Protein: Thioredoxin
Amino acid sequence: MATTTLSAANFESTVEDNDIVLVDFWASWCGPCRMFAPVYDRAAEANPDIVFGKVDTEAEQSLAAAAQISSIPTLMAFREGILVFSQPGALPAASLDEVIGAVRALDMDDVRAQVAAQA
Structure:
């Protein structure tokens, strides 16, 4: 599956309506973003059950601000609408695969209990 362009108009519904959503916050002028893009695209092709979204931080400045993006690229992972991973920096393919595996393996009942305890 190809990556999906996310904007302020479709970000929330994409995160809420899909089990696992990975989001790459990037910009065209960012060298590390350009290096990470093919790694991210290959992972999207290899994991068709996951939504791989991309947010252009130049075009979507309000969305990037709302997500508190201070460094790009930043990768976020959502599971069942809950932010479960956020890390700036370009990841090598093996590390991205590890993140995907860890997100898949999460005990979401435990995650929801932790979120409730923090609220």
Remarks:
- The beta strands are 4-5, 20-26, 51-56, 74-79, 82-88.
- The first helix runs from residue 11 to 17.
- The helical segments are 11-17, 31-46, 61-66, 93-105, 108-118.
- The domain at 4-118 is CATH 3.40.30.10 (Glutaredoxin).
